[in-house]
Amino acid sequence: MQDKILLNQNQIPTHYYNILADLPFPMDPPLHPGTKQPISPNDMSPIFPMALIEQEMSPQREIEIPAAVREAYALYRPTPLIRAVRLEKLLKTPAKIYYKYEGVSPTGSHKPNTALAQAYYNKLAGTKKLVTETGAGQWGSSLAFACHQFGMACTVYMVRVSYEQKPYRKTMMNLFGAEIYPSPSDRTEAGRRILAQDPDCPGSLGIAISEAIEEALQNEHYKYSLGSVLNHVLLHQTVIGLETMEQFKMIGDYPDVIIGCHGGGSNFAGLALPFVRDKIAGKNIDIVAVEPSSCPTLTAGKIEYDFGDNAGLTPLMKMHTLGHDFIPPTIHAGGLRYHGSAPIISALLNHGLINAKALDQISIFDGALLFARSEGIIPAPESSHAVKAAIDTAVQAKEEGKEKTIVFNLSGHGLLDLSAYEAYLNGKLTREVEQAVA
Ligand SMILES: Cc1ncc(COP(=O)(O)O)c(C=O)c1O
Q1: In the sheet that 153-159 helps form, which strands lie side by side, from edge to edge?
Q2: Which CATH fold would you assign to the domain 16-63+111-224?
Q3: pLDDT, tens digit (0-9, with 9 covering 90-100), for 33-79
Q4: Angstrom distances, CA of residue 134 to CA of 138, 205, 268, 332, 432
Q5: Residues carrying CATH 3.40.50.1100, the chain
């Protein structure tokens, strides 16, 4: 039996998989925030290059990955699929547990998969600087890295609570040459408006997005970049699931259960979408997105048109949402503190093709501890939601005496999240459920 299922560099996927070509239902279009009419490519051109706008709307099933992006991916892709044999033993489960480990990327998560693609297309279009937001810093450090690879400047608005909790992420972004500001900041109107209401506001991804878009709109050579939610971001992340499918083929297995944590939906989608295609074609697979109970977008949010940011600068998207002015409790999984969800994921949930569950902060660290002690990898707090859900599924399989194959996306490592682990070990974390949708 093999613990690690590895592909060669020449097996990096050549094409992204676009699920829009296979959905058995139409998607509701994004709407212009002013006219409330479906937006046109030109409406989006002030903030995105045309190649990405075309991908956002493309009906094509397969979209070629440019050679320069595949070369950049070769720094860390293909990523390993690992069988968690030691965890299985610890749990005494008949289930087989596999994880796709995206923490081997230069910045420690799945985020470079889209950061590199976005930086490449922006560079081609002549962009001089990309402006973005970041929660826990995984996305900001990935875009900072990608901008440096392709020779562009980068500015990051980092959610204030994470900026204070995770100072080394800031150093990492500085190291790659980016400028960082805690959000809300006094550099933008969106930030100043929030600070006037609450000078101690911990910030949210929705606020940081507003600030980043506002800055990007100030200069025609600047563009905005988003690390999740949008169709083209999910598209770039499908390299994860495409590789995973090849890896399962190599060992002659196929998963019964697929799990990913959910912030805006990109790592979950990256693993799941190629399998959703099989599910649409009739395969019996349970596909589960896991979110924090303090920010229960999928399990308690309404599906309706809402803004992707706090100030209402983005198009209106039909998605599961807690409301664009929702400011989630300051949990350590900063990358999951988002009020909305990718329209594709929201629609899949609404049509019963995927499921969702919510877990509280203490139980996800309980799961992360078991995983770290058996498999040796300290998961990012975001990814720990998937870890815990996989453990729960394996324990349930034991109780039911079922031999299930489970795969989850270990979207990142937690080596820059040790302050969160310290708080957990010192009993300083709250279960935070009560604060949920208060
Ligand atoms: C390690 C990790 N996993 C997951 C997420 C959540 O984002 P998404 O739902 O887009 O994958 C983040 C976001 O910052 C992250 O850093």
Answers
A1: 179-183, 153-159, 129-134, 222-224
A2: Rossmann fold (3.40.50)
A3: 999 999 999 999 999 999 999 999 999 999 999 999 999 999 999 99
A4: 7, 7, 18, 14, 22
A5: 16-63+111-224, 76-108+238-425
Q: What angle do CA 117, 119, 121 make, to 5 degrees?
A: 70
What does the pLDDT look like over 192-222, one tens digit per residue? 999 999 999 999 999 999 999 999 999 999 9
Query: What's this model's pTM, rounded to 2 decimal places?
Result: 0.96
Query: Measuring CA to CA, which residue among 79, 75, 72 is closest to residue 100?
Result: 79
Q: Which residues surround ligand 1 with Cβ inside 6 Å?
A: 109, 135-136, 138-139, 228, 261-268, 335-336, 380, 382-383, 411-412
Quote the CA–CA distance of 383 and 110 in Å, as a whole number. Answer: 10
Task: Give kind and range of the element (H or E) at residue 405.
Answer: strand 405-410
351: which 2 tokens? 């049509």
Among protein residues, the one with the nearest Cα to ligand 1's atom 7 is: 263
Domain spanning 76-108+238-425: which CATH class is it, in words? alpha beta
What spacing in Å lies between the alpha carbon of 262 and ligand 1's midpoint? 7
E strand or H helix that includes residue 367: helix 361-375
Burial class (CB in 10 A: 0-12, 13-18, 19+), 179: middle
